[in-house]
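Justification of computing resources. Each target in the renewal requires a structure prediction run like the one illustrated here; the chain below, 412 residues long, is used simply to show the kind of job we budget for.
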Amino acid sequence: MRRLGKTAREASALIARAETCQKNRALMAIADTLDAERPRLKEANQKDLDNGRRAGLDDALLDRLELTDSRIDGMIEGLKQVAGLPDPIGAIDDLKYVPSGIQVGRMRVPLGVIGIIYESRPNVTVEAASLCLKSGNAAILRGGSESIYSNRAIAACIQAGLKQAELPDSVVQVVETTDRAAVGSLITMPEFVDVIIPRGGKGLIERISKDARVPVIKHLDGICHVYIDDRADITKAVRIAINAKTHRYGVCNAMETLLIHEQLAQTLLPELAAGFRQKAVELRGCPVVCDTLPDAIAAMEVDWMAEYLGPVLAVRVVRDMDEAIAHINRYGSHHTDSIITEDYSKGRRFLREVDSSSVMINASTRFADGFEYGLGAEIGISTDKIHARGPVGLEGLTSQKYIVLGDGHIRK
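Resulting structure tokens:
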């Protein structure tokens, strides 16, 4: 792992100064190689699938692991999209004259070496490599042991594409070993690695956050809320709440708790319950909810802080917006929260006071996504209060440094 780290550090200096056209050429060459190597990719993936079945992986994990033609198409399309994104490196912001006569601004620069640790889905290898490459970073990728053959085959395509663009193949390195000790080494090499990004289950992320000696870009939970205010449009409120919960269950931006202003509770709860009942969603509610809806289950304290990732929803009736905001800031995970209201002032206040990485007005929490935000792609979601917060795209994989332009200026 130290050898990989040293090689990545050397490669980071080369990719940091690569021209945009060269990086784009590499991305397109990787796309072409993936397309040409479909039989080899599928053969390698079949080994992982066979091993996974023998190991007793469930159907959901096997589905995430499988590389179908459509998923390979998606990887290729993703590379082309990243190639089409503006290059953030070298962009200068806020350049201005100060009283001394010098010009001061900030230039966007790569983070350096990014270690990415992830599970199951081999397409993450391409997503991570493409974003790191375009943002001028070297990458060390450590996928799950269940996808080792697929990741090796994808890595060979990536390195072939890099060579075609006359970039060192060490710009993107995939950890070959399945030994878990490799993760422990990767997250404790600050001399070689600048940032760690974990993608996977809560257990993996908690372990890495606890043991890492380098900064970590992460989120642990997606406990997302929708608050229906007393000034909400009822039609909008029902559509958004149903979509936020049932569009997809097992994603971090799905609504897990619904808050309803008490003045709308008697009107809204039966209509919402009917919609959720059609989707077989179990409702766990406060006393007011249970009194109104006979089939609702009484919520316990743990339900207000649960990420169900399934057809279960916690529902609470609140007195007012103050109580809604207090509930969100106490029980939420600072991921994504939305207010449904036609009151401009209340919406603005919600934006200011809810302490989350994405805060919305009259929109489903399902929009909290790098592609939907116009980032083109994302490498994950960050709920930490660091430079990258919310969906992390190309800009989130960069930092800024101050630059000064003078013409013989000296300080007096």
